[in-house]
Amino acid sequence: MALKVYCDPCTINSRKVLAALQQMNADYEIQYVDYFAGEHKSDEFKKINPHATVPAATDGPNLTLTESNAILQYVADTTGAETMYPKDLKKRAIINRWLLWEASAWFPCCYVYVIENFVKPSFFKQQPEQKALDAEAPKFHRYAHVLNEQLGRTKWLTSDTDVTIADFAVAAPLHLYTASKIPLDKYPNLKRWMTEGIEQLAGWEKTQGAVDKVFPRQDD
Ligand SMILES: N[C@@H](CCC(=O)N[C@@H](CS)C(=O)NCC(=O)O)C(=O)O
């Protein structure tokens, strides 16, 4: 039975998983959960993911996974995607630290920009809450500075040679950076990694169409 990914392909953490799975040539099927219709909050979906967030995944009757980064680790291991998630424990530990940081700090910070600057005005005809954006800005700049320094040292997040699941994890919260008014221009290495690195990857490109369908691109 193939891996089933419950997701809305236009959302950050779903796109993260789908792009990385494409990059790894993983075998999976999509079970669409309409985020904007609130299907992730339905009782039926909460049987799969009681946290009511997308994505989630099942692999047969005995494994249900939530947390996008846990899905990436599992699929990288089961498909044997050695360069995306090396078995070498030191390399793996470095990837794990970025995955944990992304889930606990970077995603929640970028999500404020996505929700306030893009989702609220575009889909709910609401004004962005400036107070929320102002509260997040110092964190964003602190985090982006660290990423910018790292990406001045290495081409990809953890090495010069190999893109890993950490790159997909950390890139995903930026996937709507223009529409979300995420100030990438101040961070040239981060912007270069995003535009000349991540956006050129086959896995990223193959998952762009589903995003564009929901959020037609303005000129960058
Ligand atoms: N740490 C979780 C976060 C998942 C998450 O928050 N997903 C967002 C979409 S990107 C969501 O479903 N939010 C629920 C909501 O806004 O009600 C993961 O990595 O899977």
Automatic annotation (TrEMBL):
Domain GST N-terminal per the UniProt entry, residue ranges: 1-83
Pfam families for this protein: GST_C, GST_N
Similarity remark: Belongs to the GST superfamily.
InterPro entries noted in UniProt: Glutathione-S-Trfase_C-like, Glutathione-S-Trfase_C_sf, Glutathione_S-Trfase, Glutathione_S-Trfase_N, GST_C, Thioredoxin-like_sf
Superkingdom classification of source: Eukaryota
Coiled coil: none
Domain GST C-terminal: 88-220
Protein name in UniProt: Glutathione s-transferas-like protein
